[in-house]
């Protein structure tokens, strides 16, 4: 397709959504319980990557940037992902510790949005997660200066070779101190369910003190 054809095609795609209601009276009181209910349905629907979420951060001047990361854990009402602390997202979060994260499960016509403050998880939490990763992933974490410019692919492969050699007799490869988890502690969580004629259901949990207020918002 030419770019012109692509533009026309994008414009012509319209899909209507099935009629699967989401009701403020039947959702769980706690948004993480609601997430668990939906997550189970996502797994049962064989969604390929149900934990892949689009994470948006911003620098000190509020310039936004987004990328996909995996939601790996839920700890003390916070969603946890792992990354390189020196990456672009890591630098953003050091300057401006707020983020939003969005999951989209196309097959179920569902979207979940989290917004809130972000902090690093405790070292022991990152250590435990790192220890459970395959050896190749551990070496990859050491080898990659995530988000920095590489001269070429070979430079990365040399780094992998270097750390493979360095750790060849090491049973428990240690976690690099520049790699670990973050916890996004949401004060707003939205569950979106596609409905016919763009009259979608949007149920929002707002954190009030230590409780959650549930409201419905316009589609
Ligand atoms: C499905 C998928 C899952 C990903 N999971 C992670 C992840 O858990 N952690 C991570 O650092 N990068 C992950 N990435 C790579 C990021 O999208 C991104 O390229 C990388 O983190 C660098 O982002 P940054 O330069 O904005 O910091 C994933 C990418 C995809 C497509």
The largest β sheet comes out as: 9 strands, antiparallel
Number of discrete helical segments: 6
Shape, per Cα inertia axes = globular
CATH homologous superfamily designation:
Electron Transport, Fmn-binding Protein, Chain A
Instruction: Output mean pLDDT.
Output: 96
Which ligands occur here?
flavin mononucleotide
SSE sequence, one letter per element: HHEEEEHEEHHHEEE
**CATH fold assignment:** Pnp Oxidase, Chain A
> Approximately how much beta-strand content do the residues carry?
25-35%
Considering the chains and any ligands shown, give keywords for the structure.
single chain; alpha+beta; Pnp Oxidase, Chain A; 9-stranded antiparallel beta sheet; globular; binds flavin mononucleotide
Q: What's the SSE blueprint?
A:
Elements: H1 3-12, H2 31-44, E1 52-58, E2 64-70, E3 73-75, E4 78-84, H3 88-95, E5 98-105, E6 110-120, H4 123-131, H5 135-143, H6 153-166, E7 179-193, E8 201-208, E9 211-216
Antiparallel strand pairs: 1-2, 1-5, 3-4, 4-7, 5-6, 6-7, 7-8, 8-9
Bound molecules: flavin mononucleotide.
Flavin mononucleotide (FMN) binds next to strand 2, strand 4 and helix 3.
């Amino acid at each position: 397709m030419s770019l012109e054809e692509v533009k026309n095609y994008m414009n012509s795609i319209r899909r209507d959504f099935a009629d699967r209601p989401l009701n403020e009276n039947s959702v769980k009181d706690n948004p993480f319980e609601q997430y668990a209910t939906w997550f189970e349905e996502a797994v049962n629907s064989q969604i390929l990557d149900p934990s892949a979420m689009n994470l948006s951060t911003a620098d000190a001047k509020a310039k936004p940037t987004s990328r996909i990361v995996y939601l790996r854990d839920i700890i003390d009402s916070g969603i946890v992902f792992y990354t390189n602390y020196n990456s672009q997202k890591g630098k953003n979060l050091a300057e401006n510790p707020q983020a939003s994260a969005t999951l989209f499960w196309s097959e179920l016509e569902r979207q979940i949005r989290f917004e809130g403050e972000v902090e690093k998880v405790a070292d022991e939490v990152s250590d435990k997660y790192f220890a459970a990763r395959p050896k190749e992933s551990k070496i990859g974490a050491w080898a990659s200066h995530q988000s920095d410019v590489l001269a070429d692919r070979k430079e990365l492969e040399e780094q992998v070779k270097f750390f493979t050699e360095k750790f060849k007799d090491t049973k428990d490869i240690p976690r690099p101190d520049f790699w670990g988890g973050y916890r996004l502690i949401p004060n707003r969580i939205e569950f979106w369910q596609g409905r016919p004629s763009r009259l979608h259901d949007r149920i929002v949990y707002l954190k009030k003190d230590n409780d959650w207020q549930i409201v419905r918002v316009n589609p």
